[in-house]
Design a protein that fits this description.
Rossmann fold; 41% helix; alpha/beta; 6-stranded mixed sheet; 4-stranded antiparallel sheet; single chain; 9 helices
Amino acid sequence: MVSAARTARAVRRAIRDERGQALPLMLAAVMLCTLFGVLVVDLGLMFTERRAAQSAADLAALAAAQDLPVRATDPQFAARIDTATATAISFLAANGYEQGVNGRAVSVVTTYGGDPAHIEVTAGRTVPWLFGRLLGLANPRVNARAVAAANAQPRDVALVLDRSGSMCVDTHGGPMLTCPSPPGDPDRNGRADWEPFDTMRVAANAFGGMLVPTAGSSVLDRVALVSFSTDATLDLALTNNFLAGSPYTTAIGVMVPAGYTNTAAAMMRARGELESRGRLEAARIIVLLSDGYANRYRSGGTTANPTYSTCASANGCAAADNDVLAQARLAAAQGFQIYTIGYTNRSGAALLQAVASIGANEGGGGQFFAVDNPLQLRSTFEQISALTSVALIE
């Protein structure tokens, strides 16, 4: 029989042998963990660069698509193509992707797929490994691509116009609750007018001409008209009949400025029209123009029959602001884009900015525009039309 002492010596030798084997294994494990860690760093840098390249390509394609011609028969076709290309290159450079700089390469393809309203933008660069080169790995190439299109999807637009009494202040002084009707010629310019109201009407008519009623046999853009003062009215339901001589221009032409500023009621009317009659496949957009503070708010009644009260101050009140913001959040929750225009002065600009921010952050998009000069209003409508007509399609 084997003695107990011999057995104990054998066990001790086995333990010493295991210790000798564990050290190399431990070193190998440390090396593998270190290698994995440094590769994770390199891969993280590569993915970060990939996101940056994709963001640059997306922004450049969307910006450039706003400048594209929507059809080959556009008389400014060549100029628009050149402008779109220059815009894409400019946006790529502004976002860190300039051709030939630090290994970066970009490309812009207009009339992509044979369609003048499509543009393809690519951005890429070679990313140097920090640690991968120690393993003999070649530096990876990161590329991103985006395709954007003008008139990429149909639009249902609710145009919301302020017709409160302050909208005749430039020609008649005030503000006043009731602008003179007929307006007369107090500024002696040879025509009877309400300003800045009349300039708004001209620009709103032009906005209809910036939309596209059909694409082939399909309805593309539609517009509804809401106006507001002491209360709000749906003057025209969604229609693609909005060009010169249409019910759209007629409805704008019969408006008369008078009353308080019930912005919340206008938002509710616009939201209700887009909710009930807007197309699910369309971009649903509210464009709200106002020249002053919201000074009416809902104080009771039902959704179908609300009752409103007037703020103690013509400069608005928290109740009116909160009512407007609540309507904006309801619209944004349904994915509606909200663009706002502060017209001719800074009154109520903070509220309009907040409404547009809700659209941008919680809805499908939004932006605030300050228009100090009425003559700038048409170009503002052009910007909104361009912003809302483009989309990434690839």
